[in-house]
Predict the 3D structure of the following.
Amino acid sequence: MGIDEDLERWEREKPHYRELKEYVCSFLEDLIKKNGVDVTIQARIKKDLHLYKKLVEKRNRKKYSYNQVRDKLGIRIICKFKEEIPIICKVIDTNFKVKKTDNFYEKYSYNKQGYKGIHKDVKLKEDDKQVRKFKKLIFEIQIRTMCDNVWADIYHDIGYKPERMLDRKSKRELHCLGGVLEVADGCFSKINIGLKNPESDKLTPEFMLAFLTEPFYKFFASSYDIDYSLDNLLFLMPLLEFDSVQTFKLEMNNFFEIKKDLIMRVAEERRTEFLSNPIISQPEVLVIFYLIGKNEYGLKRLWSSQFSANYLEDLSTWWGHPITVLG
């Protein structure tokens, strides 16, 4: 098949890829957040000119077909921490039919630098009637951290230039920057892990928020305001009647296990209430649900000094344990 025929086929398929893009982005974001990870998802349909150039370039080198262009739809998942990448990969491997995986994290020896990320050529599984029209469309998903993404974007603009456009010193500096970003990636992960596993057993709002973020994403799949959460958790912390990290972990994990179905139901039913009751869109709502059963009187007594009364009255009603806030 010639280039003209390929481009005609692309014109026919392009609307399907656009529709597929919207479906997959929404589907992926929901799946990943329900696994406790907050990500940024970018997507693009390959431009006509770029497709044309790729087909011409590849065919000038070797036999190459339209079907071998796997990134007609490209989706990029950007996470904050390295330890989140295996979680995201598991989500993709479980929910898509993976045709090929390229792991660029394993490509380099200890003294080399370069592009890092994981690429997966995938297609939708065929057991969903809603997506059967997309079943033949293969697309590419890239997974990388924020630091890896900075390197990749800069390198794409600078590092891919012809040899004569970059002198030896510039190439060296570019690759050294890759090492700096790799070290930064490791430092961010170490700090994140440390927040969740503090050396001190004293309970703090910072630890509470770090601990609650993962289950909050799983239940509510929503972003939140960090400063607002820290202020609210500082207010709620004395109502817990304990100040130990280990006790907090134990109590909350038991609470999530026992009440997970109720939490999921409230999260699903009250997504439209985020503007009228902002607490429902914050991780501390999980602590409030816990306190409704454990320290109702404390909540009623102190609530109005921090929040609007109707916030707790709504939350407790949704939880199935209505509370009237004391005046």
Observations:
- The mean pLDDT is 89.
- The longest strand covers residues 96-103.
